[in-house]
């Protein structure tokens, strides 16, 4: 499916280039009009990232998040600075459908495994952000500032015992660049882990990118900047996915 994405920093819609807070572009959009249009067109889920919460959990944009939940009936998955069970409970109580767990997947593996058991695999998305070096898919954390020694394959295997279902995989080198997605990456992981519903993220700039990603076997494509900059419409994106 197509998952439109919105990142928010200090209440404003923004896109970062390769996760760099110093290299950002703000968008003056009417979010609520976008949500209304997406609902009408049949969008099934929205991806939100609270970048203020990512930097400092004390700055989580709760008022904005409440407003967004109130404004739409489209289910929303939310990421950004989710590090404790309390964080998860707050977001589920607000009405979010899924939470997206990033750095804690590495720094707090046992706890994340427990969350998968408590909330169930339909409620948790693991966000694995990778840098590919000599075809080794190394995971980066802490806003992509710290490279770990863990590979994507190791982490998916580790959590599979808890019936892991949703994985958002981003090739950092493609994120926010509009340079096209890493098709080979998604072909490899979709083929290797057939039980995982992968969400591809990063680099989509044209409709042919969506068609190529559908062929890899991923479950979903997250699209942010291309929709914000009107490179194609949500209607065109949905039709491209359905018709491929």
UniProtKB/TrEMBL annotation:
Predominant place of localization: cytoplasm
Location(s), subcellular: Cytoplasm
Molecular function per GO: 1-(5-phosphoribosyl)-5-[(5-phosphoribosylamino)methylideneamino]imidazole-4-carboxamide isomerase activity
Broad enzyme group: isomerase
Record EC number: 5.3.1.16
Pathway assigned to this chain's UniProt record: Amino-acid biosynthesis; L-histidine biosynthesis; L-histidine from 5-phospho-alpha-D-ribose 1-diphosphate: step 4/9
Keyword set includes Cytoplasm: yes
Entry annotation: catalytic residues: 7, 129
Family: Belongs to the HisA/HisF family.
Protein name stated in the entry: 1-(5-phosphoribosyl)-5-[(5-phosphoribosylamino)methylideneamino] imidazole-4-carboxamide isomerase
Organism: Buchnera aphidicola
Gene name as annotated: hisA
